[in-house]
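Here is one chain, start to finish.
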Amino acid sequence: MALPINVEQLLDATTIESARIEYKEGWNPDAIYRTICAFANDFDNTGGGYILVGVKEENGRAVRPVKGVELDKLEPIEKDMIGYNNLMQPAYYPKTSIEDVDGKKILVIWVPDGTQRPQTSSKRRYINLATVRNPYVVSIIRCRLWRKLL
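Its structure:
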């Protein structure tokens, strides 16, 4: 599927704010699906986010040249994703695109905001607090999180 944005813009974080971009050095489905859930829940309707698998992060920026994902691992990752997508409640299907960058392949996962929010992954809800701009909503979320910690 074609991305609505150029992958170079995602790597440079020039068009999209960095709070909506995650760089993952490798395939770690637990961490990646927490991020997918947070982007899909998109409280402020900022447009979800993007996860770039095969890209190392340093100080919030993509490290170039990218690490990449081995070609023979891409298809199994995409098959894994189908199972994880169906485990989310309600089921959620992010868009994927395999991109050529620096002579290597990376997997870009585009996570538009979910239409049936809130999304849960592993029976938990995740949110991206970095994109929540309404101070009232932030205070409610922090209050609820604080109560759960007590």
